[in-house]
Amino acid sequence: MLEFGIRIPRYWRGKPFRYRLEGFRCEECGEFHFSPRLVCRKCGGKRLRRDKLSERGRLICYTVVKSASPSFEAYTPYIVGLIQTEDGTMIVGQLTDCDPEELHEGMDVEATIRRLQTDGESRLIAYGYKFRPAIQRP
Amino acid sequence: MKKVLIAGYGLTKVEEHWDRSLENLMAESSLKALEYAGLSRVDAVYVANVYGEVLQEQAVLGSVLAEELGMSGVQAYRIEAGAASGIAAVKMAANAIQSGEANVVLVTGVEKLSDGTAEEHLALTAMEEREEYTGQMGVHQAASAALLYRLYLSRYGARQDGIAQFAVISHENAVGVSHAQYPFKVGLDTVMKSPYLSEPLHRLEATAVADGSAAIILCSEDFAAKLDPPKARLAACSLATDYVTPFDREDPLHFQALARATHSALEMAGVSREQIGFLELHDSFSIVAALSLESSGFFPRGKAGEAALAGKLSLNGELPINTFGGLKARGHPVGATAIYQLAEAYLQLTHQAGKNQLDNAKHAMVQSLAGLGCAAAVCILEEA
Fold this sequence. Notes:
The complex is a heterodimer.
Chain A: H1 8-13, H2 15-20, E1 22-26, E2 32-33, E3 48-52, E4 56-65, E5 78-85, E6 90-95, E7 108-119, E8 124-133
Antiparallel strand pairs in A: 1-2, 1-3, 4-5, 4-7, 5-6, 7-8
Chain B: E1 4-11, H1 22-37, E2 44-48, H2 52-56, H3 61-68, E3 75-79, H4 85-98, E4 104-112, H5 118-126, H6 141-156, H7 160-174, H8 188-193, E5 196-198, E6 201-202, E7 211-220, H9 221-224, E8 232-241, H10 256-269, E9 278-280, H11 286-295, H12 304-309, H13 326-330, H14 334-349, E10 363-370, E11 375-383
Helix pairs in contact in B: 1-3, 4-14, 7-11
């Protein structure tokens, strides 16, 4: 059986989105793509520019993952949520710095960077965004 | 368009076949299908399989199966479209017959998940999502299905037991089915009290690790005349795609690919939804069965659970589903699943369904999904 885990170049390429919520937005119709695209998936437009999602959003719904793939099994249980960012984009990601009881649908959340997994014999650490309850600002 | 007929089938029991290989399983179902149809050769072989490269580290499954069958030399291919691979392979096979290139073909689906662990199984299902996005976030298919489930319950104010009832129906229908993985009843209470896989999705609302292989023989009308077994006609076969991540779609609770494939299959077969006698649904998760029924236009949005609880989807109901246990209870050996579904529909239409035989079903619809609807494939079978 082939091993699951982090392939370093592939992991490296995904950093802009995973670290900074940076992707590509279509100049024609505004569709956001998490990875570099040559063509907009929605309108077929070919002019896409680098863009960053808002780091603040609203929690639409969430679930607690009780069993996970080998790469994530050590972190169970963990919370996974569907978030609508302030610019209206829906994204999924883990929730952190809170217990499930502290969460409710519709609450404000913000992106932060955290360890996602530690992989393989070399203990390579993969970082990426997670959302946490928004710290109330005056 | 030239007619395409199903003239044979072969199934292995779905279970964890620790002592048998992927190669051995696909050879068994294929040989059964060939023997059933009275054939020793075919013009082409199509293998539907998803995880062979990862779990068995084996590619070239077309050549492997041809060799196992003593048929080396024949043209053979392996087709992959996630859990919809079976219908994708049937579509390629039907195309070969309709183009006139082949008169008779073997389509074999196979998967052997027990070569991996339960955790690896979760990683495998994540391959039907965007690995670079949800995969690297630890959001596997069951977690995404749980989020869809939450959205569904909150949007429609639907009762959860209505959705969980889909698991109960599948288990009821699997009783006494010799090829089923779990041929026993499971009560609604048991489903609802099983541990959460990912809340609100219970363990018993999902499928489990399964091995199995199913094969069917497809042929042209002229060729079918030379074969003894009863036939069913493949009246339509259609496949459509959608964005891979459901939450990227305009409405995550609507499987647009399935809506498209259903519409085009009905048009191709020239039948209406009312003429469909029964449905073989893709119940990889209970919520996916509900979303499928609604997306394909058989029930209004938010109402599938009510139909399930009211008995409308049971064997004696107005629109029976999963007449041999569906993915949940017959089992879900991914690449083979849709071929099991088609073989079961064939058994119904040729009156070989035993105690599960439906009266007066003239048309069957088989639905298959890759992941959570990134591809949807629909076949319509009719009495020949």
